Amino acid sequence: MVCDRCKRVVAEELQKLGYTVHQVNLGEAEVSASEGNPDLEQIREMLESNGFELLDDRKTQLIEKVKLAVIELVREAGESDLHINTSDYIAEKLDLDYNYVSSLFSASEGITIEKYLILQRIELVKELLVYDELSLKEIAYKLGYSSVAHLSNQFKKVTGLTPSHFKKIKSDKRKTLDRVQE
User: Fold this and answer.
1) For a Cys staple, 52 with which of 42, 47, 96, 167, CB 3.0–4.6 Å?
2) What is the pLDDT of residues 95-109, one digit of tens each?
């Protein structure tokens, strides 16, 4: 789950299944059943029918927490003009050694956390370009790029387009946050 709408859908669907929903956060839900334990297979099917998946092992949960931390980091940097060290942020957020988390993430996802961060940043750049409220220079500064040229080069490497060309054609070029790796 990567947004408030996702959390709302999961909560509503769990309630339809008869569960009492105590809380739904990004990547996790706390529920109870009126009788016995929650039926994980029933929950898995509901989640999958809504485009989500049940994360029922620790490794998968940790990978999801890394992804959510990266998304949060990118969004916070984009909103606050703060430039935070990625490895320090993730290590502190997860209270784990960054090297361990990084190697686990790379082995599981097939890309590094840094590459995933770049992909998330480029998606935010696309969003900001579509909104057309900030100049490319302002976007570069806001997201912590050293220059417009650095942003433009990274954007072109990821998308195959220059930011100005993307801005001209902007239709159907953005991905939902859960599809950034594809």
Assistant:
1) 47
2) 999 999 999 999 989
